[in-house]
Amino acid sequence: MGKKRRATSIDGQQSQQQPQLTSNTTLKDLNHSTIEKCNDESQPSFMQFFWEFADHDTNVRTSSINDLIAYIESLSDATTQTERLQYTLRRLIRGLASSRDAARQGFSVALSVLLQSFPQVTLQETIDLLNDYLQIRPSMKSVEQRDYQFGQLFGIMAIVSSKRLELECENRAKYFPLLILKLIEISKWKKWIREVCYECILRILPKVTNEIFLEALMEPLSSVLQCQREDFEPEQLQLHLGVSHYVESAQLTENKVVAQIFSKKTTLLTLANLKLFSKAFKASSSCYPRIHSLWYGLFGALLSQDKGEDRDCFALFESVWKALVDDLLLDDEHTTHERKGLVLKLFEMIVTKVPASVLHGSILSHKLVTCLCNNALKPSNYLHAAAKHCFQVFASSLQAEFIHFLEHQILFPSKLARTLESIPVDSTKKDNEHPASLLEIEEERDFARELGKRVHHIRMWALDQLIHTVSQVILKQDEENEHSKRWQEPLEFLISLAFFQRNEAAPQKVVVAQSANETRNDYGADRIWNNDVKTHPISESFRDALMKRILVLLSSNIASEIPKTTLHFAFHIIHKKLLKLCKDRKKSSKCTLQCAGGESVAKNAFAQIPKVASLVEKAHSNSKSSTENAASRKAFHLLLMFLSIQLLDASLSDDAVVVLQDLERSSQDLFNEKGAKSSKVDVEAPDPVAVLIDILLSMLAQDSSAVRNVVMHAFQSVLQLVNRNSLESIAQVIKPIIRKTNDEEEIEEGESSEGEGEEDEEEDEEILLDSEEASKALWDDVASLDRDDMALAAIVRQVKDKSARKNETKILEQRQIHFQLRVLDLLQVYLTRGSKQSFMLLIIPPLLDQLQATERGIKHERVLHERIRTLFKLIQSRAKLFVSIDSALKEDKLLVTDTVEYIVTAMITQNASKPTINVCISLLVFLVRLAYSQPTSMECVEGVMVRAIENAFTRKHGRFPRRFFEEFIARHHTEAIQLLLPRFCKIFDAKESERPHIVDPFLQSEARRLLTILVRSKPLLREPANTTIFIDSSPCIRHVIVSSMDPEPESEGKLPMKAKRIKTIITLAREYLQTCIKLQSDSCSADLHERLQKDMQTVFKALAPFAAASKSPVLGKDLEKLMSLQSAL
């Protein structure tokens, strides 16, 4: 009905004569007949503008509005432009009541732009059309009434945003009261629309003059607020605060009538009045997660003062915040989730508007911090996402203040921990009875234990937040001094807290306050060691977690430049602090600071770090002066600093000392100057690169991702120095784990249980002989009871020890697998960088063993298996790049042949799976081709291939895969002819009484099939050497063909040959004859020609009876084609 009514009102009226346009003619004077032309279908582009106003995309709506305004402005004819304006105005006002998609937003913005762009559209006409088209009638449905109310509201807001009210100087007294009274009327319709109406009123009010306010607006606005202040709703309080702010800014407080109704801001926001308005402030949380406009008006009025009134403004703001947030919304008895969520939103709103002193002084109160941390610590809380977002806003807007906040939570978490949800504390004490005092002691212990857990939980949360923030700051590519201080100060704080602790036995220091002119200490983190500041003791678990996170922070993304700077800065801090500690210890036995790991860690640090510092400076200076091995020098530089920091970790201190000593010797040998070479060479001295790789492997065995990152970066830097010895040490650690099988364990258990069973049977026989005497002796003899108890305890202890050993074995196996996975990561880096050393083949045997051992292993072993398969794929893809054999080096040739022999032996002796066989075949094809290309290694490869052929064809259940020969022939046919053809002929020539010979018809058929591929004429005749081999093998091939043709197999009691195998014989004969014919056609000697002629005649003679005896039509056709070759002789 509504759409039909709108259509008839605009377009369905009868046409009348068009009036004459004059200078005084308005849009209202135009007749509707002129608008019918706008609905003509000949103007689709003009109508398209209105269709796109309801699009959800803001860019589409904005573009359509701009196009519409540009189109109307482009019309040169005044009549047409007036017609378009008339239609556009009516269409936009009608569209304000539409609930389709984003129609209200689009049409209201378009109306505002239209009023701003065309002054001839008067405000009076617009208001009249709003009242006419959007008038609410009692017959309307509630949904339609709501749409019309929204249309009126959006129309008024469009008029206000068009800024036409400021230009109407003469009619200002008319339009302002008219619009505000209309908004008051709309606000009385429903409560949920009241907030928007009052907000629109407060937007219009600053533009109203004092006279208009006193004459036309004071009475209707005061009538809205005619109720007790205790009963104010949030919208009424919003309007009251806004009007009071306007009255104070317009200096209307001197008027007694106005001052009686609307108080000053300072008078209105006293503690007494805030308590009266508590109902309204509490009710404002009902619109969570949105913030009620009341709070925007309140804080906007408090924080929008001049700079000269900052102190008074913030003082009033602090008092209002404490009264409303701490005492009202966060009241322990009446608080709710919505009120807490409102507090979090309010904190996000004002966190960037107040200075740091106000933020830490009053805003971050104990209740607010408790609310933030309580919801941020537990993901299951209702406000966890809101608290997390609140901290993100805090960290992104005020990074330095957020870091200081987290440092304070790490140092002083006990106050916060005492108020986190429900710590059981009984304040009642009973000192009269002894059991009551014992109960109090138990309760105090439980309370201390629970408080320690809470403190640890809070510190771990604050630590994770601080580490994340510092890492984000470090990764920013900014070299300004202010930016460097942002990560240096918190990093210094974390290092001081992790590796050092306060000496409780030290005398207290007198803290002297510094004046404003004095400079800050170089290490401001030392403020945490002042004895007058009491902190909760730091637990060992928190210190261990802190150390691990610091090492991860220092080693993350270590390949970039900025993390290197952070590592150098950390090393500088530790080195300077240790020197200071050493001087303090020499002066006095008591100092305010000591190492957190104890005396052993302090001794290691005092002994090693000064030496390491000098070595670091030397390596750094050498890297600047010499460009040779610059990457390796930087790697040593980072390793030295990182390991020196590890010295302060109690669990890694002793290992770090050994590693540092080896690293120092290795670096001195590896980077020794050319002029500093000694005259005598120590032959038995270890290889420095091998020592370095051993150091990296020992560091890789630690369960630390930070150490893993450092080792990976150091290995990449010294990658070009890796030699045979270092690669052998890597190959040793990736060998498979040798463990006892379940059968062996059961045998050991069975042997022990059999001995125990025999003893038990003898004891049972003795007891059954005389039960009465045994029972009497059992009860009388106390020693026998003790022996039985001890025996039972020994059995239980044995079972526990056995299960503990099993668990320890499992843990050790898992650690070893994880260590091997890290070593495989190093090998992947080594292979990816394109190494060209042939001693890379050293890693193939242990990788194959590990691949075979982990085929059907546990979950961790399956991961290891997949990683090794990935490495083999990488080896195959880069095989031609990283292996180069020099003819002058015998070790490389022996290495290749040894690898080939190892793979063949493994394939013969082990029952491998298909994936493993595929890997071995690919490797073997490449390595055999590589080794056979060198004359000196041909004999070794030939011997290995003889073993492979014998195992594949002369044994009934040979394990060597025959698919290797197919792959080798397909990829390297020339080498296959030279290597395989004589060996196949040899096993065909062998008699049944000799060894080796082919023992199975199926294997004979497979051998003939491979022989057929070998004797093909086109690839065979390319090389003269291959032709010679074929001529020498021709009698054997002829014998194979002739002996395989048996015209009457049933007469000898044999089974008939299958058609598939007969076809292989025919194919072999065809390839052999074609090769012979091709060879005859080439220039050859008369003797060779006559010899080939006889061989072919022998084959044709054997084929004739075979073709006659064949009953298969398919084989008959093949034989006819084969016999047709006889005409070429």
TrEMBL record:
SUPFAM superfamilies: ARM repeat (SSF48371). It is found in: Nucleus. GO terms for biological process: regulation of DNA-templated transcription. Residues 1-28, 742-767 are annotated as: Disordered. GO terms for cellular component: nucleolus. GO terms for molecular function: DNA binding. InterPro entries: ARM-type_fold, DNA_pol_V/MYBBP1A. It holds the Pfam family DNA_pol_phi. Keywords: Nucleus. Residues 743-767 have a biased composition (Acidic residues). Its main location: nucleus. Belongs to the MYBBP1A family. This is Uncharacterized protein AlNc14C153G7572. It comes from Albugo laibachii Nc14. The gene is AlNc14C153G7572.
